[in-house]
Each structure stands twice: as C-alpha cells, then as structure tokens.
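User: For my dataset I need records formatted as: sequence, then structure tokens, nothing else. Please produce one.
Assistant:
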Amino acid sequence: MPIQQLAPKSPGRNPISSDAGLIPLAMSLPQRGWYSPPALVDDAMREIFKRVPPDDPRSLVRAAAVCTSWHGILSDADFAREYRAFHGAPPVLGFLHNTRHKRSWEKGRIRHYRKEYVVSNFVSIASFRTPACRERRHWRVLDSRHGLVLFHTPKRDEDFAICDLVTGDGWRVKADPDCADIIWNGWSDDDDNEYEQENEGVTWNAAVLCAKDGCDHIYCHGGPFLVALVGSDEEQRMTFAAVYSLETRKWSDIVSIEEPNAIETTGHSAVVGNKVYFPCEETYSLVEYDMAGQKLSVIALAEEEDDDLPWLDLMGVEDGMLLLATVMNFRLCLWSMEAGPSKTAVWTRHRVIDLVPLLPASALIGVSVVGFAEGVGVIFLNTKAGLYTVELSSGRSKKLHGETSFEEVMPYMSFYTRADKPKLSSHLFSYTRMLQKKGESTAA
C-alpha cells in the first residue's frame, strides 16, 4: 500500500488531518477524559486479587499498602466473602505442636534439673504470621478446628483458652466444677503453683468446634463455639463427658457410663455433625460423644484378638466419614469408618499410597502419621528425615520441617485477608504475655 504524502502546511489547515489519509493525532493518543472509569479498574483489580493463592496472604497485605484504592478493595468485607467463595476450603497456614522442656540451674559445676514443662509452638508454612502465632510456655495445644485453637494450661482455675490466630480474639473458659475435680484429681502442687499429674488413671482430652447454625466452616471467625470434654477415671471405673457453649457460657450436665476407657491424651479428635470422637489408649475403640443427645458410647474398631489388625490412628473426617490411617511396609494405608449395628464399626481400607516414590530414602525410616488437614486432604508424616506432607489427591509430597520428634501436629486452617486484620489489643495477648513473663521469671 503506497504511503500517502502529507499536504503542505497552510494557514487554517491541520497538517495531520483525516483527509490526509491518517488518523487524527487526537484519536491516536489517549486523552485525559478518555481513561477507563475507576469502577471498571477496581472491578478488574478485584478479579486479580481474588486469584492470589490463599496460602500467600502476605501478598494481599502488601498490595493493600500500595494505594488507597487497593486498600479499600482488600479491606472490604464483600471482597473477603468473594475470595473465600472462589477458593473453597480454607488453606493450611501452619501447624501447632507441643514440646517439653526442663528447667535447669547450675550450682558450682553441677547442673540441676527440675520437672518438665510444656510449650506450645506455631510453625508457619505459608506467608502468614500474626502476633498470636507465638510460643506459649505452660500452654498445651489440644485441638485446632474451624479457625480456632484450644489450649490447656496446667494451672488451677485457668483451665482452657481458645484463640483465633487470625483475628486475635481470645476467650478463657473454666472447666465445669465437677469435671475440674476429676481433671485435677491426683495432681500435686509445687512452689510455682503448677500441677503435675501423679494419678495416671485419670485421662482426658478436649475438642473445639464452631457452633454457628448452618455454617459451612469456611469462615467461622467471631462465631459461637463449643468445647467438648471427654475423660476417663479408672479408679471410679467410668468415662465422662460435658460440653461448654459460648452462647450460654455454661457447661452441660456431665454424662457418664460405667465403662472405663483410657482416653488418648495426645490423640486427634474428629467431629461428624453433633458427634465428637476421641481415640482410646491401647484399645481398638473410640469414644463417641453425642453433644445434642447428651449420650456417651464406645465404638469398637475390631476385635482386639485380631493380630493381623494394624494400629490405626484417628486422623479426622473425609467425605463425612471418620478417617483412620497407619503406615505399613512403606505404604500409607487409609481406612474410612462408619458406625454400624451393635456399636461395632464398619470400616474398609479405601486407599493405599506407596511412599517409596514420594519420599527420599532417608525419610522412609520411622514413618508415622501425626496429622491430617481436613477439607484439603493433606497427611502429615513424621520421619527420621523430618516432617513431610502428602497430598492425597495428587500424591505430591513436601518437606516442612527438619525436626524428627513430632508426635502430633494440629494443622491451622483459615483464610486471611486485610479484612481479617488482627486485633492487637486482644485481652488474650496480654494474658499470654503475662504467663510468659511469669514463666521466664521462674525459669532458672
């Protein structure tokens, strides 16, 4: 196509005009009044922000600091709801676990040791950390579910603490007086007003769960919750249970059965509907606590005389069914279990995953299942080479930590956007700092 020549400049004539065969300059360059409306730009940015991976909340926080427009988008509660709906199940932001330490002091050349104390720890596996994600001396993590973490502190009259690590909200709950008498039975006091258990015949565990009606448990922040407590007293030959409601701020009446079943104090709990399950020590059975019907029962996994049955660990819930797991011959074996007639469980092995192609050779030694992230199908494995995760859907594995002594990990799952900015003034933070300072002052 021949290039057309520009007409010579003459008075009153634009040298670049439409009759010269070219687009007018005013049409070829963007003009101030022709930019896209801000609303369209904001809508486009919302769609972009919506696609930021939920396990990378730091990117959203940084984006909110770029300009007031982005800050407004990311701080909007409507965007937070759209973001959660777009991604579905909450991501795993980290996990909690307990460690035990010994106080010590030196006298001359001799180092003396006192009794152990527990420390709860949070390990981030995403770009997430708030002031609530700290080491807590004397606090033992019991459960993590629906964005909440349940702690127990071995100090009389303090009992339980519940914390939302995202928002910083915190609550303290005293145990039911009757339950407290059982929990503290056989515990002795020392000079630091701490208690150590002497009567091993009393075992118990507790779970926390959202109590909001019709909740899909994608976003449970600020909602009511329940704390279910189940225990066993061999001397009294009974298993007991009670539930605390934040709405009523009261404990239910204690229900019990004359059937002692030592509760696994470091085991995982599972929740299906209004029922919570706890594993028993050294027996192939689970304790089922129906919180709505206030009923307590024991479910046998199988006959204890079955020597071919491996030891199964209760992990959680998958597709509405209880999930149990174990590792045999370098294979991760998963069972799903439903309650059958006559209190006998109907369980089937529904999945076997070969760990040889997924883990390095050094990680195939001493493998044990220590945690499970519900909703995203991620199993946590403790090995001689460190802590690994395996995705059940894809089979992908990932090394999370170099420590090799994890007995139990509690995955923490929640969404975190700018709208969920932590409340730094939370009374639980000051309470935590108070306990930490006291513990540091008494540690020699």
